[in-house]
Amino acid sequence: MSNKLLELIESSDAKWVDFRFTDTRGKEQHISYPASSIDEEVLEEGKMFDGSSIAGWKGIEASDMILRPDPETAFIDPFFEATTVVVTCDIIEPSTLQGYDRDPRSIARRAEEYLKSTGIGDTAFFGPEPEFFIFDDVKWSIDMSGVSHKITAEEAAWSTNESYDWGNKAHRPRVKGGYFPVPPIDSSQDMRSVMCERLEEIMGEDRVEVHHHEVASCQSEIGVSFNTMVRKADEVQQLKYVIHNVAHQFGKTATFMPKPIVGDNGSGMHVHISISKDGQNTFAGDEYAGLSETALFFIGGIIHHARALNAITNPSTNSYKRLVPHYEAPIKLAYSARNRSASIRIPHVSSPKAIRVEARFPDPTANPYLAFAALLMAGLDGIQNKMHPGDAADKNLYDLPPEEEAQIPTVAESLDVALQALKDDHEFLLKGDVFTKDMLDAYIALKEEEVQRVNVTVHPVEFDLYYSC
């Protein structure tokens, strides 16, 4: 049987093989080995490494772990000077030779297996849309004397009175005005095109579907076609890697932080989901907007578990500065065809094969493996327990009478609220041993440290509110 990794090493005359994996927070980590040391035995047995330094993983007393490469993920890195083949790895527990219970990719693999075991479907398809910002310069400071941050961006709406060596050319989007005028207002066209070229080198031709400026100043999106769940999570990590590095090459800095700018739109990661069985889309039917009853129950599961899901799909304190009214933020737990004010949207499609649901509240700080697995598990729980979501909401949910608005539930208001919801509602994630209680406890502890750090840090707004009290 052919092996993509070994074939790529040979055909490219690679000098190095870069083993990559994703930690609990969603950041890729890597370690490089000489290409000459990678053979069939390594592919089968993996490479040992110390997992004790990975936040939320094992302590030093039980730190030995195995990196097992997935050959089908191999690609030639487009940024390293020495020819290097990159391969994504699963983390294997040496004592059991099974996927480590805190390894995000292993969790997503178990979610795919659980889907098959239910008989509901055999394949879950995911199509996320992570948005991002591109700035010229970013500084911040946190010490006992005070805190500050400063974003510099020539394209930004606030830069109308800045002085530049080459002159202030004045063409830039206004607040919420970036969707989507032509250059020179859109200043990142060429950069995004290079990002797309690098992505297609990694993922293959015809994978990139679109790129464009987004609503906020300095905000962009690159659309890549859907894939099976674990492979799509792999591709999200590849997309982030490419965007960060191409921006760096252009002398810019890219971020997937949801709300880096006060008063403008934030970055989401809308996630399109469908389930297939025997090649048929189980979400297509004769119900509302061409959905099946299965799809409606799936939506019901996501809505029912949404606040617990927020702890995983919106895992930063900054996430909840995006999830506020009137910034196209999908805070209302309702579903609708084409209505972007609902947290679940049913996109208009030309064929039943393309019927899907779109969860609009996730954002790109989410670990894609954990977020996709959690969304799938919530939806499956909805199907298994026939959680009908009720009637669709086709009104503008941002402009309802107060008494009607109060009847519609919302996403969590903050990360600590979401973490408490996950503590109270997580049994659906434990089915099939996809997530474990031990993993969720470690995840919650890690995130509570972030909440506490923000909570104890004095904020400039507090000076504005209280200094003269």
Describe this structure in words.
With 469 residues, the protein is of the alpha+beta class. Helix content is 32%, strand content 23%. Strands 8, 11, 12, 13, 14, 15, 16, 17, 18 and 19 form a 10-stranded mixed beta sheet that branches. Strands 1, 2, 3, 4, 5, 6 and 7 form a 7-stranded mixed beta sheet that branches. It has a two-stranded antiparallel ribbon with strand order 9-10. Helix 6 crosses helix 9. Its EC number is 6.3.1.2. Pfam families: Gln-synt_C, Gln-synt_N.
In terms of per-residue confidence, which ranges show pLDDT below 50 for 5 or more consecutive residues?
none
Outline, from the CA principal axes?
A: globular
Query: Over all CA atoms, what is the radius of gyration?
Result: 23 Å
SSE class: alpha+beta
Distance between the termini: 74 Å
Helices and strands, with pairings:
Layout: H1 4-12, E1 16-22, E2 28-34, H2 40-45, E3 47-50, E4 64-69, E5 75-76, E6 84-93, E7 98-99, H3 104-118, E8 123-135, E9 137-143, E10 146-152, H4 189-203, E11 208-213, E12 219-224, E13 227-228, H5 229-249, E14 253-255, E15 269-277, E16 280-281, H6 293-304, H7 306-313, H8 319-322, E17 332-337, E18 342-346, E19 357-359, H9 368-384, H10 402-405, H11 415-424, H12 427-430, H13 437-455, H14 460-466
Parallel strand pairs: 1-6, 17-18
Antiparallel strand pairs: 1-2, 3-4, 4-6, 5-6, 6-7, 8-12, 8-13, 8-14, 8-15, 9-10, 11-12, 15-16, 15-19, 18-19
Helix pairs in contact: 3-9, 4-5, 5-9, 6-9, 7-9, 7-11, 11-13
Comma- or semicolon-separated keywords:
469 residues, alpha+beta, seven-stranded mixed sheet, 32% helix, 23% strand, globular, ligase activity, nucleotide-binding, ATP-binding
